[in-house]
Amino acid sequence: MSVITLSGTGVSWPCDDGDTIMRSALRAGLGFPYECNVGSCGNCRFDLLEGEIEELRTDAPGLSERDRGRGRRLGCQARPLSDCAVKLRLMPHYESRFRPVRQAATLTATRDITHDIREFRFKLETPAPFLSGQYALLTLPGVEGSRAYSMASTGDQADEWHFQIRRVPNGAATTKLFDGLKAGDHIEIDGPYGMAYLREDAPRDIICLAGGSGLSPMISITRAAAVSPALAGRRIDFIYGGRAARDIGGKEMLEELPGFGSTIHYHPVVSGMPEEEDGWNGYRGFAHEVAAKLFAERLPECEIYFAGPPMMGQAIQKMLIDLGVPPAQVHFDQFY
Q1: Which of these CATH numbers, 3.30.420.40, 3.40.50.11900, 3.40.50.80, 3.10.450.50, describes 206-331?
Q2: Cis peptide before 300, with omega less than 30 degrees from 0?
Q3: What is the pLDDT of residues 199-227, one digit of tens each?
Q4: Rounded CA gap, 60 and 38, in Å?
Q5: How far does the chain reach from its first CA to its final CA, in angstroms?
Q6: pTM higher than 0.85, yes or no?
Q7: Element (H or E) spanning 218, and its range?
Q8: Is 18 left (phi over 0), alpha (psi -120 to 50) or beta?
Q9: pLDDT tens, 283-292?
Q10: 2-94 topology per CATH
């Protein structure tokens, strides 16, 4: 075990062997800034003043050569090899309501959502609550490094976490999940993490935009919002985008919720070129285009959550800025 000291503050915390500086801080109840947890966003940069670390991902895009030259490192990729002194600004906003825990989990069941998205259900060794919309890190047998996946279940399902995951062609992690795991197999789950969780104290209608496996956290948020007493009567619009009709899913899960068709509305959209045989009669285009078309005037008055591929996320952010949506009402986690 190493001890991490925050320079000039007197604050210190323990970091177990194999853990990272950032995650150990969150486990200690500290507000260490972060977002993606996989080395891509750069939000967890800190200055290493003393001590030795191992960088789990030496080519992490969240850290530039200039950063390295100035002694900066990524908290989510820094595994201490000794006691360390660091410099960064802790922020209460990042303090975890439910502190993340590393533990074993057992695959109990799977089901297909679309042709390339499958739900994986894992029973935790020790029940752990989370905020709907958060994610966890999965470490799979024989796969180097961990992967971030969002839960589709709601935060009160503390004993079993469900993940809706899209197969990545030739991806080591999803190949293992889809082709290598069977019911009864064990993995490690570390969580919960993430800041794009449902805000039950926000007295606004909700719009969820999703693409690909971004379906998972948006389903979690909608499921929780549909039964939240604090959000009773609020309208929820769910926009889900895919390239073709076979990529579209989620409706059957929303139909199970109270208020579907009255307060909950589903808007699927496909972006691929029309083909006579695809049988698609719904919206065509991109999710952000449909959102702007349907809700341009309402968007600045709504609480907005989104998840999906990087290009989709960038297009949504630009659209929301152009329409004057206050940043405090927009919630997403950068996994890219």
Answers
A1: 3.40.50.80
A2: no
A3: 999 989 999 999 999 999 999 999 999 99
A4: 8
A5: 31
A6: yes
A7: helix 215-227
A8: left
A9: 999 999 999 9
A10: Ubiquitin-like (UB roll) (3.10.20)
